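Hey everyone, long-time lurker, first post.

I ran two proteins through the pipeline my lab uses and got sequence/structure pairs for each. Pasting them in order. The first:
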Amino acid sequence: MAAIFELSDKDVMGRIGKLRTAHGVIETPTVMPVIRPGVDASRMKKFGTEIIITNAYITYRSEELKAQAIADGIHALTNWDGPIMTDSGSYQLYEYSDIELENSEIVTFQQEIGSDIGVPLDIPSAIDTGYEEVKRELEITLERLREARLIVDDEEEGMILAGTIQGSIYPDLREYSARKASEIGFEIYPIGGVVPLMERYRYSDLVRVILHSKMNLEPSAPIHLFGAGHPMVFALAVALGCDLFDSAAYALYAQGGRYLSPMGTYFIEEMAYLPCSCPVCSTSSASELQKDVDLLADHNLYISFEEIRRIKEAIREKRLWELVQMRVQAHPRLLDGLKTAVGFAEFIEQFDPVSKTSFFYTSPESAGRSEVVRYINRLDRFELDGTVLITTEKRSDLDYDHLFILKAPFGPCPIELSETYPVGHAETPENPDAEAMVRAASGTRRLIELNPQAHFVLVCERRWEGYLADLAADGVEIHWRE
């Protein structure tokens, strides 16, 4: 069955969508809790779970589980009547270097047990592996993807096939992997091999991996970020176009006594109060969670789904970027990730909605938002002559043919558009930071360069002098206001 992925809303590169599978429709973005093979998954529904993920390789290796799965199906084995994604054993391959199973065997097995979403046996290259070795492993992965595609037909009510993107930390290999996987054709594209990056807080590398993959994939295809289970990364990943997450973190972190939140991780033994109102935290104390790993795991999963719902509402309200800016304050390296994403603003701008309700400038990274980039790029639509006045005030005693209001971070905006989105609907600080003023100055220079036949007059406060004074050498008449 060819997966049908329909979008209902979007913001930045994030989207709310419906993914149809043989066992029902799921709404993305969403989290897939990791369930051990043979464990009853029915309790997952209380968290709002729509789809789970379990391990086909571990199931295959156990004679008892394998026999049950073949006889009754993976849904009966897990007591789950909704969609199930099965992993092929790539994580075990990463951990143990080799597994006694062929790609064709595990793909066929996933079909046989009724998996809704199956995954070929890709090779997740380590992030410290050399370029040539990663390239060799990638070619093996691509050959296995081709083999899996021949095995799995696009039959109605059949298994959806996921084509995993690999390539370690090398941008060109991620791009190559994405292009080749797209040529083969899959219904879902997981981005693999990223867990070590998150474990080492290498969020800038994570952002580059996501975007270099995304830039070379079919824009409408759903993206699964393999192994991303901490709620503090969800908002940033969704804003970069990821739709599915799998979480073993809720249980693994609980085993280590760690209490998850969208703003970071806490050790439960050091906590006296629970800053959460989930069903666990509203009826339990910190000391009770210290003694009960299952309760702590439940909290971790509740908070994960809460964050997903918050992200969906942010998308609906066109506030996803603001939510991301709040979340990246959880860790300095996460903030580095957002700064790296800003460097891809030209690409992100292609997907971000043109019109929203308002623009909130909440940190220096706002100066690199796609709305700002788009506005400055579109300054070439103005053809000006005569005297052009650029000022921070909406009125002037000077004569002019065209009046532009200077507003950070956008730069000059014609008075006729000063009440329209984005400039007119922008909530910005009264005292802009340096990044906003630099961006506004670049827009001012662009407008002047695009209209050499016009005479420009600049009237603004002295605080702009360090950013715009050099324009006098280009013939701009400047009046500073104290």
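...and the second, right after it:
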Amino acid sequence: MNAPDKVAALAPTVKLLINGQFVESKTTQWRDVVNPATQQVLARVPFATAEEIDAAVASAKEAFKTWKKTPIGTRARIFLKLQQLIRDNMKELAALLTAEQGKTLPDAEGDVFRGLEVVEHAANIGTLQLGELANNVANGVDTYTLLQPLGVCAGITPFNFPAMIPLWMFPMAIATGNTFVLKPSEQDPMVTMRLCELALQAGVPPGVLNVVHGGEAAVNAICDHADIKAISFVGSTKVGTHVYNRASLAGKRVQCMMGAKNHAIVMPDANKEQTLNALAGAAFGAAGQRCMALSVAVLVGEARQWIPELVEKAKTLKVSGGTEAGTDVGPLVSCAALERVTGLIDRGVAEGAKLELDGRKPDVKGYEKGNFVGPTIFSGVKPGMSVYDQEIFGPVLCIAGADDIDQAIELINANPNGNGTAIFTQSGAAARKFQEEIDVGQVGINVPIPVPVPLFSFTGSRASKLGDLGPYGKQVVMFYTQTKTVTARWFDDSTTSHGVNTTISLK
């Protein structure tokens, strides 16, 4: 945490949201929210006290008593209004996001829009939260299911998508009748708070949505709190594993979307220009700070000759502040991120990978204090090298080679992560073989970042995911509800009694 200096002390403070009110924290621990392109302090975020976290949970618990009984149409109409408010404020939301996170304005709008899609999906809760009925399963007996809300749920979100991922979480949880406590990233909470303001404006009642800020202590408090029934997490593998283990031991439902090392196979028959554009965009967009970033290209056979053209494509990308027109690659989120990414590039060189394009210390006019790394490409990368084994979370593309598709699939399946993968080919047979044999949850065919639309669910697998239900889509309705099965028989005066039945059968 930053010690508040005179400049930081003049910056506005980020508030907590408790029981429908934005309140000033009484904490003595604060962190600066810093523009990563300029190092300007934008705001100060509090690390909420234990009492404030308890108050947020208590508010959610009290609100659940009435919210769970709110008609489903009333809930749906709130999210219809919220999606319109988000559309109306898109430019403001994107500008806030760019200032505190660094990504380009067009990418920031994309961040907001992909979250907006989930809000629209939440407005369809009337058809998503349907139970089942079997009529006359025995003599005069019907069985049916109810999908009922759990109670207080919580979300812990990362820095890289401060609009999209909170919108993955609280709309679906609230639409299904739960109340929610959100802990956004302490690095860039401002756009998240603006979205919560819009949610209240749309009609979310006091206590139904609450926000606390903080670091490890706040995460642990959420994991341990007896009144929180379910937790959704997106972030690093280290923290996600901790959250899953700690919260599961506390008896909670948990879903954790975690780290990745996403590969793309490039077959020699792929459309070269489209493929090179896709590789560059997916590897270097958002400065590589996406859990679905394409970080390893596996070039098969003659496609290995495309490296020089890929390097030239990467050189055309503009590195600058996210507000500058035409910028392709903005800054990394923090000085610590910059140090980590450049350190991994150093290790890649030391461990024998060939540095085809060096993005360290780019000259970015007007942003000399920014956390910039330009597009960086390694070839000859193999398992065991740090740049292959670790998620770099920067604009670094590793290139590996394979003799054929079988060797490429074997390489990908040997990696412990299973978030996303892709193949570039014009062969239907190759694409079908890939989708059948690859052991990764989300597959793209000529699509470099295969994040599904909310009609489906985010389905990362293996070391990239803990918990068996994903965020948004049909799966998250099951995550945020408890299935109650009712077996009913109604008698009228004409029903003949068969006496006492001491068996388990229904007669």
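Reply from user beta_strand_b:
Welcome! Quick read of the second one: Confidence is low (pLDDT under 50) at residues 1-6. The chain is about 35% helix and 20% strand.
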